[in-house]
Amino acid sequence: MLRRVFITGSNSGIGFELAKQYIRRGDDVALFDKQFSDITKQTLCSLAHSNQYIEFFATHICDIEGLQIQVNNAIAAIGKPELAIYCDRSDEITNSDHALALRNVATVISPELAMNSHLALMVPVTNKAQVSPEPSVLILAKELRQTFKPNKIKLSLMCFNKAHNASENAADTAKQIVKSLDKQKRMVILGLQSKLTYVMSHYLPNWVMDSVMDRLIKQQLIRTTR
Q1: Are 103 and 71 in contact (CB under 8 A)?
Q2: Three-state SS for 20?
Q3: pLDDT digits (tens, 9 = 90+) for 2-48
Q4: Spatial strand order in the sheet of 4-8
Q5: Predicted confidence (pLDDT) per residue in 152-165, tens digit
Q6: Are 33 and 10 in contact (CB under 8 A)?
């Protein structure tokens, strides 16, 4: 089944590899990043069929006004997204910038998601020993789940640790993400920082993972108030 897919951070790295995956499937794809190199455009466009839409939109996702304009342009070009993926793992981006970018993407994209569509957010974890994101991210995820529930919109968190960037293969990670999103997993652990949580995220039903996410929120809030 072909879809309309929006992907941020798609000039390089995992975002670029995700774009390749969905373009090869035949999906119409709108790509967002601060800028796009000629090599990126040529490589991705060469994978597309003649009747397939591949559109590039340069914007900084921490600039919500610029992002809104480009998302509107993308909708005009290919239609509203059925799958939207926030993906930006740059080491230059701090956790606070990630939180702002996540909030911006959620604010701009969420109203455009139709029934049974899907929003996936790649989020950094708090430290090497944990797989849970920052408290603000978990709270945002809970808010979105509650907002999306009436329209059966899916929400996935893809948790990663920056310390594992150098050792991970972007193409393999993109394949893992696509496979997990196809299964509509609520939480995707990128890398085996916690084997137990990784297994849980892949094999437990989503209603169980919802309770896990709620418990993580409570634990993180307790830590921040101590």
Answers
A1: no
A2: helix
A3: 789 999 999 999 999 999 999 999 999 999 999 999 999 999 999 99
A4: 54-58, 28-33, 4-8, 83-86, 118-124, 154-160, 187-189
A5: 999 998 887 665 55
A6: yes
